[in-house]
Amino acid sequence: MKAFPHFVFAFLFFCLAPGFTLAQQLQCNPCSHAFGKVQVGSSVSFSIQLSNTGTTTLRITSKSLTGSEFSFGTFPVPVRIKAGASVELPIVFAPTAAGHTSGVITLVSTAENPTLCMDLAGNGAYPLAVTPATLSFGNVTVGSSASLQATLTASNAAVTISSDGSTNSEFAILGLTLPVTIAAGQSVAATIQFTPSAAGAATGQATFTSNAVNSPTVEQLTGTGVAPANPQLAVSPATLSFGNVTVGSSASLQATLTASNAAVTISSDQSTNSEFAILELTLPATIAAGQSAQVTIQFTPSAAGAATGQAGFTSNAVNSPTVEQLTGTGVAQVSHSVALTWDAGSGDPVGYNVYRGTANGGPYEMINTALEATTNYTDTTVVCGTTYYYVATEVNAEGQESGYSNVGQAVIPPS
Question: Which of 78, 93, 137, 333 is positioned for an S-S bond with 194, CB 3.0–4.6 A?
Fold first, then answer.
């Protein structure tokens, strides 16, 4: 029996890198494609250009594709590509679930690189809905604020919002701590605040960056800043009358400042008379429309006689400076004294001591500095508004002092 040669045929397929050059090559452009985020249930298409770099016609004999969410568009094989010509290979990505997916296209041809591989990637995602589509703030007075709420809803799958922002600094996003994950079918509220800095229309967008297919999700914003309508600052009462105040002492009264129809900012204050001082008003101070603030005025007369002045408050009100009339009268301090007299005792005294206390029955303190030779004594050290009780004793030649006399009382007027 004759022996026949035994041949082993090995068929090898190579996916050649695009940078490896053969005489007749099937080239792809691009050789990979990432579809990015595509809404689950919808589809997007992309075409890869296939080119014949050789001098003769080549044929693509088969095609295959991994990744169940990728598919070929219209591309029946075999496909002939003339020398130097190109064809388009359409690929469709139609995600059926949220998340990342990948795939590989494999083409077999008669080119010297018989197997050509191309990578695909995509992300299935759901949208993040925001309602209403536009927040309209209407007219807002310059310097004040208005707030509205937007609702962010994750419809079919959880969505994580990683950051937010506003395209106009007059609109601010409040009350949303990031990152925040919204469960499927759930919603969160975001507060948008409009604070116009000038009169006129304002527009902007609140943006929410997330893993949703429509990231960043956009909320349209509109509003109009309006100038305050002739802000007025009222002060009451129109005049503060302090009456009589003893020279060297002080009296205080309160005035009320009211912003009647718009917010008013007081930038400075002053008094036209140094005997009147404005207290307890920290500047600048803003009083909201319809609100009031208290201010204390103090009168400290430096001399006896009538005093007048004005407390002025400079602000953005149309009636600035707003003026409070002030009146008061300084009266001289009154000097009081108590004149004491008593009957001499029977003990042959050579002098007397005088004692004073502020309670009936004592304790008492001696107020004379030396024995009084007479039965008269004037106390000039009394304080206004105090009641005093006095007793006297007699002292004989041997220095012996008697007991207290009966008690005398003196009531000193308040002024």
Answer: 137
| pLDDT for the residue 2 | 39
Evaluate the omega torsion of the peptide bond into residue 196 and state whether it is cis, within 30 degrees of 0: no
* Exposed/middle/buried for residue 20 (C-beta within 10 Å: 0-12, 13-18, 19+): exposed
**Distance between terminal CA atoms of the chain?**
153
Per-residue pLDDT tens over the stretch 37-80: 898 888 999 999 999 999 999 999 999 999 999 999 999 999 99
Q: What is the pLDDT of residue 276?
A: 96
Residues of the chain predicted below pLDDT 50: 1-22
Whose structure tokens read 């009382």? 409
CA gap 67, 124 in Å, rounded: 13
Instruction: Return the pLDDT at 354.
Output: 96
The residue type found at 199 is A
Q: Would you call 123 helix, strand, or coil by DSSP?
A: strand
The pLDDT value recorded for residue 125 is 87
Are 390 and 355 within 8 A, CB to CB? yes
d(CA 102, CA 121): 4
- From residue 336, give the alpha-carbon distance in Å to each of 305, 341, 368, 386, 409: 21, 17, 17, 11, 15
Single out the residue of 281, 290, 274 nearest to residue 314, CA to CA: 281
Residue type, 173: I
219: closest CA among 311, 307, 277, 152? 152
243 burial (CB, 10 Å; 0-12 / 13-18 / 19+) is exposed
Domains and CATH numbers, the chain: 26-125 (2.60.40.10), 128-226 (2.60.40.10), 233-331 (2.60.40.10), 338-411 (2.60.40.10)
What are the percentages of helix, strand and coil residues in the chain, rounded to 5?
Answer: 0, 55, 45
Dist. CA 274–CA 307, nearest whole Å = 10
Q: What is the pLDDT of residue 336?
A: 86
- pLDDT value, residue 415: 67
Which residue from 352, 295, 353 is spatially nearest to 323, judged by alpha carbons? 295
pTM value surpassing 0.70? no
